[in-house]
């Protein structure tokens, strides 16, 4: 049943009709738990609250698979405004972006031109930018662009996904660039030709890449809500005398907030992933696909009086 629900949500995440309906009815049906708001002002307020509680943040302006140069340019302008807001409001926050939202599937030249504008602004505002990893078809292109930009800019990192067979080799390759990496398990529905089909294998590989990256001495964002993976990270750090400021735990907005506070109180850096914007539906569906048990929360909130 869980597998069927997960596949259903994955399919809905790419459904244009469902996305249009979601925009029409706004951040209701439980989505507000996972999304920081539909505009930048709401997102800034959310970051401020996190910062005041001793947490870090990353903002992700929601939008992907842009199919025109005009919309890619518009998204780029929105991202530039987000960088200005981070600087102007002195937020302890960085920017996380999807390359498909700024033109990757139109052409790598379009994407690179837009990305360089963003990275020029990130250098001027001294704000870190994370290139997100999307589905497998864009994996190599994302890594190639990251490696090219890493030779020109310092405030840049990317993401690797534990469910891909290739990731251990990618970790070793990216070590040559002293890459700041966000380590995730992966949230897209990939073929068994390129990704581990069994959760146990993904979990095992996730621990392996955590160990490898930490021992390489590069900064790590351990993006997980999994107690076992968190304990593994702490054990590796303690046994190898890796300082707490060499890594951080990263978690999604709205998921396991008590664990976030517990890790903060234990002296670990905790960064919360804050997506915002009108294109929230695909992101919301992938969160349900990852954790179908979140559907229970959604159903309860749908029928609450005044639920939004």
TrEMBL record:
Gene3D superfamilies: 3.20.20.220. Pfam families: Pro_dh. Binds 1 FAD per subunit. It comes from the Bacteria. FAD binds at residues 133, 161, 185-187, 199, 224-225. The keyword Lipoprotein does not apply. Residues 47-298 form the Proline dehydrogenase domain. It catalyses: L-proline + a quinone = (S)-1-pyrroline-5-carboxylate + a quinol + H(+). GO terms for biological process: L-proline catabolic process to L-glutamate. Its EC number is 1.5.5.2. GO terms for molecular function: nucleotide binding; proline dehydrogenase activity. Keywords: FAD, Flavoprotein, Nucleotide-binding, Oxidoreductase, Proline metabolism. This is proline dehydrogenase.
